[in-house]
Amino acid sequence: xxxxxHRRPPAPHAAERARTIAARGGRAALLPSxxxxxxxxxxxxxxxxxxxxxxxxxxxLPDDHPLVAAVWQAPGSELTxxxxxxxxxxxxxxxxxxxxxxxxxxxxxxDAVEAREEVLAVVDERPDPRLLDAGxxxxxxxxxxxxxxxxxxxxxxxxxxxxxxxxxxDPFCGQExxxxxxxxxxxxxxxxxxxxxxxxxxxxxxxRPLGLDRFGLRLRxxxxxxxxxxxxxFSHPVSTAAELASELxxxxxxxxxxxxxxx
Length: 263
Hints:
Elements: H1 2-6, H2 14-24, E1 27-32, E2 48-51, E3 57-62, H3 66-73, E4 79-88, E5 97-109, H4 112-125, E6 138-152, E7 155-159, H5 161-166, H6 176-186, H7 188-194, E8 206-213, E9 216-222, E10 227-233, H8 241-252, H9 257-262
Antiparallel strand pairs: 1-4, 2-3, 3-6, 4-5, 5-6, 6-7, 8-9, 9-10
Helix pairs in contact: 6-7
């Protein structure tokens, strides 16, 4: 019985969570190592970034950025960097970052032909008007991944590029922001009913919707001294909006749930 009490709710595995953060396309920063002569590493915000399913990333920087010059001058015209992606909650929280993904690899600048091919590949997945700046004041770079690390409420895990490439992002990651904002702004009564699943010691805090995936719902409890993230598991993993709605009704104790299932 003790094992059941302390068992963690089921959650997506690390590679799936990493793919989800990458697919959401949150705030990005490059952390280059420019050597002793350049002093400490700095944080560089790219003009645009996109992570492919393979784990490789396309980045755009101004032509005159020092990092672009450093890449061209590096041995083999490649520079070791870390791309940091921050997964931010879609509702306003005092601690908005839900998770971090770090992709370590080799960065190189693409020539005109390679840059055009890279831009066309990105357009197929993510049309963005900033792609038009490629070759017109902006340099296109490619990051080849060597390793990945994800850190979030589920823990810190290493992910190899092969695991990342074979995983899939959560089926609801494209709609999650909209749904959670709607829950926060228009259905505080539902959030209150979901609070019945919290441990007794957390029920006095301010409860906010934090995340949603195929395994369950995540709530943030903002207490006076600290924050607590709690995962509320579904009875089984879901993959469609209809299955998700049924599980949410079950969690809030909807009296029409049984009738809906029979129908």
